[in-house]
Amino acid sequence: MSFLNSIGRSMQRNPRGPKRSPTPTGQSTDNVSIPPQPSSPSSPSPNKPLYLCSPFVEAALVKGNFKTIVVLPKYVDIMEWVAVNVYDFYTNLNEFYGVITEHCTTQSCPTMAAGPQLNYTWINQDRKNVHLPAPTYIDYVMTWVQNLLDDEAVFPTKAGHDFPQSFPATVKHVYRQLLRVFAHIYHAHYNQILHLRSEPHFNSLFAHFLAFGREYELLDIKEVKGAPQALVGAGMLWEKWKELGILDG
Ligand SMILES: [Zn+2]
To answer: I need a surface site. Which of 20, 163, 168, 199 has the fewest CB within 10 A?
Structure first.
């Protein structure tokens, strides 16, 4: 069953967590900016990011293929299933970011970098692409998502409240932005994840996020991998984990 083509009815969910800071200005974005290329041709970096190296790349809490844990359980409404999982991905990612947030500053992360040649930009209220420091960008994303989760008209929690027709599109948008937060953490803060010995947890969360996104058509592969001239660093985990049998093709 395609999630994007189905609209179901809602059921009771757990109450949601506390609200974040007030809504920032601006809209979220799908744009990506590519910094100027170096004048000399760049050769493949001899320094492979640690998250692509053994044993870190294989570190996971869940053994085997993630497909099994994303399948829609019997008798569960697909909208409800997607809503609960998106809520969990957001909550867990927010916790990880909370732990490393002191290392993600406007000085250390002046742009929303997710690869050597990739900086995400934000679309502001004037529909202009702007570079934001990563902590600002991430705060905008997380606040925006929290506000959506708290909005009964978007993520209904009460019996008898239906999911809106726009729910699939909203969730895709949320997913794309959460992917960027994952991508920034892998690119810029993997050392801190390792320092906390949290790589099995973080890999498992990301692999689960990717598997779920593919199962319910919430993620475009090109968003995961990036463009050839602006690769998403963490996007390389996709192929790696397929090789290892952690993800499906
Ligand atoms: Zn950062």
So the answer is: 20
